[in-house]
């Protein structure tokens, strides 16, 4: 199913609402199947309304090739992350990526730090650094050109967050796009 929207003058493939790892809906012109859980159904309605209003984003962050501990797909690989802090129900963002492997699965991730707000709210511990938490929340597949564009709403546990954003390759879970800055938002 395709929910087409304009992003930087290009066509996007998806509007995605993520309730939990492996639980999501692609939102399009046809109403998606409603979740059984009433909290998830309310989040889906709030996210659809936010996507339809097309409110401006609060901040834009580049996604770049990672430091040495990641893996470079191509020197031309680029991306951007636009976040909307005004969406109080979770984390809403727009992502654009180019020059990744065509037709390849990647996973979106937010990563905390022990001393930062929200770290304790993320579900998974970094192996070898158990006090640092992360959340691999959505697996996507790039198009035939190695691009991906979407608006995403992510349901999170309530609280303040200060996190990094990563894109990982599903073949080895190495980071292939890296957000340089930590950014803040809150989920109610």
Report on the architecture of this protein.
The protein has 188 residues and is mostly beta strands. The protein has one domain: Coagulation Factor XIII, Chain A, domain 1. 9% of the residues lie in helices and 47% in strands. It is built from one helix and 14 strands. It has one helix at 38-53; strands spanning 6-7, 10-11, 14-20, 23-26, 59-64, 78-84, 90-98, 105-111, 124-126, 129-141, 148-155, 159-169, 175-179, 183-187. The strands form two sheets. Strands 3, 4, 5, 6, 7, 8, 9, 10, 11, 12, 13 and 14 form a twelve-stranded mixed sheet that branches. A hairpin with a 2-residue loop joins strand 9 (124-126) and strand 10. The longest helix has 16 residues, at 38-53. The radius of gyration is 16 Å and the shape is globular. The two termini are 30 Å apart.
Q: Which key terms come to mind for this protein?
A:
single chain; Coagulation Factor XIII, Chain A, domain 1; twelve-stranded mixed β-sheet; two-stranded antiparallel sheet; 47% strand
Structural class: mainly beta
Could you name the CATH topology?
Answer: Coagulation Factor XIII, Chain A, domain 1
Order of helices and strands: EEEEHEEEEEEEEEE
Mean pLDDT: 90
**Secondary structure tally, helices:** 1
Low-confidence stretches: 1-12
